[in-house]
Amino acid sequence: MNNPPALQASQLSVSLGNGSARRQVLCGLNLTLRAGAWTAIVGPNGAGKSTLLRALAQVIPHQGDLKLLGCALAPMAPRDRARALAWLAQSGAGETSADDLTVYDVALLGRLPHQAWLAPPSAADHAAVETALRQSQAWDWRTRALGELSGGERQRVLLARLLAVQAPVMLMDEPLANLDPPHQADWIALVRALVAEGHTVVSVLHEITLALMANDLVVMRQGHIDYVGPAHDLVAHRCLETVFDHRIAIHPLNHQWVALPR
Ligand SMILES: Nc1ncnc2c1ncn2[C@@H]1O[C@H](COP(=O)(O)OP(=O)(O)OP(=O)(O)O)[C@@H](O)[C@H]1O
Predict the structure, then answer these.
(1) CA–CA separation, 228 vs 31, rounded Å?
(2) Whole-prediction pTM value?
(3) 231-242: per-residue pLDDT in tens?
(4) Which of 17, 64, 86, 203 is 20 to 30 A from 253 (CA-CA)?
(5) Looking at the predicted complex, does its ipTM rise above 0.95?
(6) Distance between CA atoms of 109 and 58, rounded to whole angstroms?
């Protein structure tokens, strides 16, 4: 029997803004994302990538049906959902409230869906936090306050919080923002290791060359999905060049694909 997809959206619509500024950003999207794969969502600024990811993560109101690993998301208990679907928001999006917490305690927040009400963290929670902080190379800062860290260091701590959830499906909005090239390469290696363990990773990326290393691509433009499928497919590459108005060209180099400005 085939495994169910990680996420399925049917007739997904999202409107944002208030009053006369309210506008429909996504209109009736249908999308299926494979389980046990890394999917990168790409497209020009304002295409609706973050809105799509935030709707999939259930952090903004939307219309339409969503399924997580074959189960309808809407009736799922919030705690069950939070264990199964972990979410890394875009850098700087509403995270200042955690600035006074230590790095360790920020990562420990990822264990909340696993903890009984008012119960202290278990040995399993501490083990998951240590593993996550080591995976994102943030363990050495565990006693420092989040607010003391640089943008890239902070991003790695928030990544650790997501990893600590140990969710089968992980959604990340611009996880490479503020990361230097070696830490971007570390992130790719981490995602590949997570996928090899059976996790699903869905990430919005602006770094097209890195997105081309994903298993699958979702290419968006103006609130629509123009392509869903393997990242190595030449149809995906032509679609990417088109949505970026042919200002980029995709070339093979050393057994991978690179996107260069024209
Ligand atoms: N709160 C809001 N109110 C009204 N419109 C919004 C709101 N948030 C986003 N939008 C609009 O929705 C559209 C999609 O935005 P979204 O952030 O999803 O795009 P994106 O593809 O992630 O862009 P970027 O690459 O610039 O991050 C944009 O035109 C944006 O102006």
Answers:
(1) 8
(2) 0.95
(3) 999 999 999 999
(4) 203
(5) yes
(6) 18
